[in-house]
Amino acid sequence: MVASAPSTSQPAVTAVGLxxxxxxxxxxxxxxxxxxxxxxxxxxxxxxxxxxxxxxxxLQIMAGKYMVAKDSVRVLGGSPFHDLxxxxxxxxxxxxxxxxxxxxxxxxxxxxxxxxxxxxxxxDGQKRRVQICxxxxxxxxxxxxxxxxxxxDVVGRLRLLDFFKQESDERGATIVYATHIFDGLEGWVTHxxxxxxxxxxxxxxxxDVQEAAAAVSGGKKLLHVVEEWLRAELEARTxxxxxxxxxxxxxxxxxxxxxxxxxxxxxxxxxxxx
Length: 274
Description:
Rossmann fold; ABC transporter domain-containing protein; 8 helices; nucleotide-binding; about 20% strand
């Protein structure tokens, strides 16, 4: 199945732009290395890579949580270090003013939220669904997602992805979605960005990334394409380690120093710009 193109009624402007973005945690070698990506309005980009590739850090940079070189990151034409909407778990869903009642009802039903259950009695997954609902109550222009569907069942996940697709097709919303779950995404994705050790190795529109284009056109599952990328990465890393060991070299200092992850994206799975 071929992914539908974003609505042509929306202007073809860049919503998210990265220009040679690099970032180093204090005391560490550069962790994000000269990443460049251009996402037009209305695109749905999958951010892909092995654990530790830099997906969450890159999302945090796009969300304005880490300072990088001036003008290397642009979201909606401006710096992401301002005008950031952060989710407040302390507000109840019906306490948010200026919300379309139909949109609110759809989100509550789609995320299977019990409006009568007290927050203090909810599981972490239930609380996260409330946070997701609140974050989506008002329309956004750019949405950054980090494994947002981890607490949803298969049906709930597909319905939420359909909601995001409708948002981008009808309103021109731009979505960057980091995930390890690829079922059903062949007809959803418009752009991909594959990360390896802090670099974007494959990025752009699906049609411009040969392997991803084959998946979207029905040639193979997107999951299998990603597995091939990850397998090739692992084999190359293993070969480099073996060559270094044969030459009498131990692990590099860069590999020995691991950056400390902040709690932002792991505990709050989305950030948005309006």
